[in-house]
Amino acid sequence: MTRYAAFLRAINVGGHNVKMDRLRALFAEFGCAEVSTHIASGNVMFSAEEAAAGELEVQIEAGLEVALGYGVATFLRTPEELAAILEAAPLSEAPEGATVYIGFTRGPLTPAEAERVVALGGAEDSVTVEGTQIYWTPAGRFSHSKLTGATFERALGRAVTFRNDRTVRKVAEKLAL
Is-above-0.85 flag for pTM? Predict the structure, then answer.
């Protein structure tokens, strides 16, 4: 069995409300074991038979779409991948009190995608890319930034979901237990 964290897009936003007990039950129906969640924003930790993560992401997405009636982009990471993501996060470079948001994508960004995403940043928002992650640090509050998840998705032409660094760290800690 392999441990995974699933970061789900479109859970408990935009009128798509899902209780965490239902989400845990759905993952169990999909054959996952040791299912738990962290806060109500679509962070699921579980164990599953070892398979290609991309195949497992597609299976979970298909199951969630049938059960919930809408598409839910799913991004899986192992404990080792989360450790590397947190290690690469520009936390020490962030201004005091700032929050770093980590964007999860499927597959590494191409050089052209990375260039478009980094160009979204500026004086108010710092944006860097490392592998399959986007690191975004708004100068002020998240809600005051001109950037949104949709802005990043338009630049990429594909789905992305963001979590703050504290949430990713907590999920990584719970996943490692």
Answer: yes
Pairwise CA distance, residues 87 & 12, whole Å: 28
In whole angstroms, how far apart are CA 128 and each of 34, 46, 114, 116, 146?
A: 34, 29, 8, 11, 16
pLDDT of residue 165: 95
Cα(66)–Cα(82) distance, rounded to whole angstroms?
28
User: What pLDDT does 124 receive?
Assistant: 85
Q: What confidence tens digit (pLDDT) does each residue in 96-119 have? A: 888 999 999 998 999 999 999 999
The answer to whether the beta carbons of residues 76 and 56 sit under 8 Å apart is yes
Q: Which amino acid is at 97?
A: G
What residues have CB less than 8 Å from 99, skipping those under 6 apart? 137, 138, 142, 164, 165, 166
| Residue 13 burial (CB count, 10 A) | 12
